[in-house]
Specification:
The complex is a heterodimer of chains A (about 350) and B (about 525). In chain A, about 70% of the residues lie in helices and about 5% in strands. With about 350 residues, chain A is of the alpha+beta class. Chain A has 2 domains: about 250 residues, Multidrug efflux transporter AcrB transmembrane domain (Multidrug efflux transporter AcrB transmembrane fold); about 80 residues, Alpha-Beta Plaits (2-Layer Sandwich). Chain A has a 4-stranded antiparallel sheet with strand order 2-3-1-4. In chain A, α6 runs antiparallel to α7. Helices cover about 55% and strands about 20% of the residues of chain B. Chain B is α+β, with helices and mostly antiparallel strands and about 525 residues long. Chain B is elongated. Classes of the chains: A alpha+beta (about 350), B alpha+beta (about 525). β4 of chain A pairs antiparallel with β18 of chain B, so a sheet runs across the interface.
């Protein structure tokens, strides 16, 4: 069976302007949503607080639960249906109380059972994260995302442009920059943004096209995934960070396969125009790109539907990430190569300098 | 030697290697389904270790408030300092602890300043003079702990706290608890399968500082409650819970601050049942020194009330009827049997050198864990079946080869989890599921290449050869990035997320092996051994 015919030739590159507009719009909407809502909707892992998951034997409304909560002195709690309706499970979220969460959970159970006598209450999960731990985790998560992007930038510039030293120098420069700016007690998000700008700037300056394309594509994927989470008011938790990092890896996976083919074809058909070669490479790998996305989507959708409430959001993030990642490796990562080449070609025409090993024609 | 001869020669070795790996993997996986009686002792019998989110249990991060340990050390030192100054006949005033960890005092006679400094230097080497003001007629001093001493006390507080908590948990009886220090002053505790989390927390978090103090009967408690507390006294309360109405009643006591005896001198504490009221109480036994101190206190204060204070709460305050020798006492206080049992444990294990604060707590009930395993496996099977069918339809005969590789991949992940004693968590299951989706990727890349080669008119054998050799580098490149992400995640992750990073990394490595080496051998078997002339792809 063949979904994608071998002689397929879709003009992806010709439509790159439309793709850029689509991507740019999505990124702007995502950032706008994040900014307007004051950052991601942090779950208790990052914001601190308390969470109690309760299961009832009879149906009950969130309002009923809230009423009982106020009798034990828990105000401003949010009560939310968890998982399927027939599970009769609810998540109670509250700010940290003075009481130990376990004791509070027992009290809530006692009062609920006393109020609704024939409704059996089961406390299934209790989580409490102190504000200090939440802040630690938030910083750690950002650092991890950043470290992943950095390592990948080094790997790609080394592997694709044979510039290992340059890659390592970039990494060192970044670490120094971060150290320098952290002396001004900037918060971590600002530092990360500075670091990313420095990375992108260095990639442009040092003509690390592949690295730049790959990094732009994965920043694109991460921002849009976070944006959709922000738009749908889903919580940003530890497993979501795991999903984001996996998406980073996955999105690159696709991108690298296309890049590999571009490099191979550049050697093979060095008389053809650059645009044509890029477009041909995308078409040649299209079958694989789509197939792998389909199989991965299959399993992730299975987790989304059957995996239960706890990893529901994780699967949701993965679904977005896979779709966006597949799109970006076709429409973002490769067209950027062309864009950059046009810029450097103009520069090169003026200077007429000698060619390095992997000059793109 | 032609390429074909070379491949034929290595074929046997490759098959042997793969079979050996499969056998070893099966040996590791097997115990997870129950160790049979005939299982030889030499073989591994380790089950795959389930995380707290799957088997239920409690995860705690405690912070040892080690500053408090420094404060209580300073309190002790200030008492010793008083004794030493009196002995050296140095007259002082206003000796007090300030800011928690400093001692201030004034020397009444300026001529004694140097002899005071000598006392500090000779007998209190751990102190340093933080500030000194000799401008007035009474020189004022501030003493502080030397920095390395303070650091040592803090470290000791964390180490001892860890040891004490470990003792308590061991005596409480939890199977396979995991208690370890984290960072500078944190303790990470994992208690799998705990039934009564509330009780466990109370047992772990209690400082359990047992003190014997005298009740001040000369002054009235009413005045003290109005704010007129006599010097050297404090108001402590006893909390009584009515067994029927569950109403709490707080009884205030005016207690003299001086501690006569602490839990330090205990050798044993056990639960006994009062034969008269049929109520549990905790009987405690002092060591020799403690017994002597107890005898002195009770002897000197007959007819007065002795308060038994635990963590600042009065448990009981019986009237001393006569001098008590023999070094035994009892703590009563409307306990349930469980409370008495747990109190005995904490008294036996000893007090924490500093109070602890719960920074993070996650408890998963066993039923939720079971449900998670169930839904995890269910989604793995459905997702897996879809992928397998899809690949089979898409690549026909070769799809069967890819599916064999996939199946082997899952066995390898399970074996690696058991062999490395890694923990399987719910996100970890998600990682395995994700691997199922991504592992076929390598075979997809290879098969697409083979199809391209066939279209170019190559023979099946040349097509397979070309497909594999051209695809390998791409596959490695593509997987390195996911591996980088997984490793970063492993560094960053805690508990469940770490489990995800582990299964994802193992899955990637295993899929490289199965899709590059194993599937190739199967192709070679058909093309070289069976001389099949056409590939179904």
């Amino acid at each position: 069976m063949e979904l994608i015919k071998p002689n397929i030739n879709i003009d992806f590159i010709g439509k790159r302007k439309i793709a850029f507009i689509v991507s740019l719009t999505l990124v702007i909407i995502s950032i706008a949503s994040l900014v307007m809502k004051g950052g991601p909707n942090y779950g208790i892992d990052f914001a601190g607080g308390m969470l109690i998951q309760v299961k009832f034997s009879q149906s009950i409304t969130p309002g009923d639960i809230k009423e009982v909560l106020s009798t034990v002195g828990v105000e401003n709690a949010s009560v939310q249906q968890f998982g399927d309706v027939e599970n009769k499970e609810y998540l109670i979220r509250a700010e940290k109380s003075s009481e130990a969460p376990e004791r509070l959970a027992e009290k809530i159970k006692g009062n609920l059972e006393a109020t609704y006598t024939d409704n059996k209450v089961e406390i299934r999960r209790v989580e409490m994260v102190g504000p200090k731990v939440g802040k630690d985790l938030r910083e750690k998560a950002l650092k991890a995302l950043f470290a992943a992007i950095l390592l990948i930038a080094v790997y790609i510039s080394g592997r694709f442009e044979l510039k290992w030293m340059t890659g390592i120098i970039i990494a060192m420069a970044l670490l120094i920059a971060i150290y320098f700016f952290s002396m001004f007690h900037m918060n971590i998000p600002t530092l990360i943004i500075i670091a990313l700008l420095v990375t992108l700037g260095l990639c442009v300056y040092l003509e690390l096209r592949y690295a730049l394309g790959a990094i732009v594509a994965l920043i694109h994927d991460v921002i849009i995934t976070m944006g959709i989470f922000s738009l749908t008011d889903k919580e940003f938790t530890l497993p979501i960070v795991a999903a984001l990092l996996t998406i980073v890896g996955y999105s690159l996976n696709d991108t690298i396969i296309v890049y590999d083919r571009i490099r191979e074809n550049l050697r093979k058909y060095h008389k053809e125009a650059y645009d044509t070669i890029v477009n041909k490479s995308i078409n040649q790998t299209l079958s694989r790109t789509i197939l792998t996305s389909v199989t991965t989507l299959m399993v992730v959708v299975a987790v989304f539907i059957f995996g239960g409430g706890i990893i529901h959001d994780f699967a949701f993030a993965m679904i977005i990430g896979i779709v966006v990642g597949t799109y970006s490796s076709i429409y973002v990562a490769s067209p950027i190569l062309i864009l950059l080449r046009k810029g450097t070609a103009a520069k090169r025409a003026i200077s007429r300098r000698g060619r390095s090993k992997f000059v793109l024609r | 030697m032609t390429l074909k001869e070379y491949q034929l020669k290595t074929f046997k070795w490759r098959v042997t290697l793969i079979l050996a790996i499969i056998v070893v993997a099966c040996v590791y996986v097997f115990p997870s389904f129950g160790v049979p009686a005939w299982w030889p002792n030499l073989l591994p019998a380790e089950k795959i270790h389930l995380g707290l989110d799957l088997q239920g249990g409690m995860h705690l991060v405690l912070e040892v408030e080690s500053d408090k340990a420094v404060e209580s050390a300073m309190e002790r030192i200030s008492q010793e300092l008083k004794t030493s100054l009196i002995k050296a006949k140095i007259r002082y005033r206003d000796l007090d602890r300030i800011n928690g960890d400093k001692i201030r005092l004034k020397i009444l006679n300026p001529d004694q300043t140097s002899s005071f400094e000598d006392v500090i230097k000779e007998s209190f080497g751990i102190l340093e003079i933080a500030s000194k003001d000799t401008s007035g007629d009474k020189p004022a001093f501030q003493l502080a702990l030397k920095e390395e001493e303070a650091r040592y006390i803090k470290k000791l507080a964390v180490d001892q706290g860890l040891e004490t908590i470990r003792n308590r948990i061991d005596q409480f009886g939890v199977s396979e608890p995991d208690i370890r220090p984290q960072g500078e002053n944190r303790i990470l505790i994992q208690l799998p399968g705990i039934k009564d989390p509330k009780r466990a927390i109370e047992l772990i978090g209690k400082t359990a500082l047992l003190e014997f103090k005298l009740v001040d009967d000369e002054h009235s408690i009413e005045d003290a409650l109005k704010g007129i507390i006599p010097p050297g006294d404090e108001v402590l309360t006893q909390v009584e819970v009515d067994p029927v109405t569950k109403q709490e009643r707080r009884i205030p006591y005016l207690i003299k601050k001086r501690t006569y005896l602490t839990g330090e001198y205990l050798t044993d504490a056990r639960v006994q049942i009062d034969s008269q009221y049929n109520e549990p109480y905790v009987s405690i036994e002092f060591d020799k020194k403690g017994g002597r101190l107890f005898e002195q206190v009770t002897g000197a204060n007959v007819k007065k009330r002795l308060a038994i204070v635990l963590d600042g709460n009065v448990y009981s305050a019986p009237v001393i009827q006569e001098k008590i020798s023999g070094g035994q006492a009892r703590i009563t206080g409307n306990f349930t049997t469980e409370e008495a049992h747990d109190l005995a444990i904490v008294l036996r294990a000893g007090a924490l050198p500093a109070p602890v604060k719960i920074l993070e707590e996650r408890t998963v009930g066993p039923s939720l864990g079971r449900d998670s395993i169930e839904s995890g496996i269910y989604s793995m099977v459905t997702g897996g079946v879809f992928v397998v069918l899809f690949i089979l339809i898409y690549y026909k005969g070769s799809g069967l080869i890819a599916n064999t590789a996939l199946f082997l991949n899952i066995i390898l992940i399970a074996a690696a989890l058991a062999a490395f004693r890694a923990t399987l968590t719910l996100p970890g299951i998600a990682g395995i599921i994700l691997t199922i989706g991504m592992a076929v990727d390598a075979n997809v890349i290879i098969f697409e290449r083979i199809r391209e080669e066939i279209r170019l008119g190559k023979t099946p054998r040349a097509a397979v050869e070309g497909g594999y050799s051209k695809a390998i580098l791409t596959i490695l490149d593509a997987n390195v990035t996911t591996l980088i992400a997984a490793l970063v995640l492993f560094q960053f992750g805690t508990g469940p997320v770490k489990g995800f990073a582990v299964t994802l990394s193992i899955g990637i490595l295993a899929s490289l092996f199965t899709s590059i080496i194993v599937s190739r051998v199967i192709f070679d078997y058909f093309l070289l051994q069976r001389r099949v002339k056409e590939i179904s792809i």
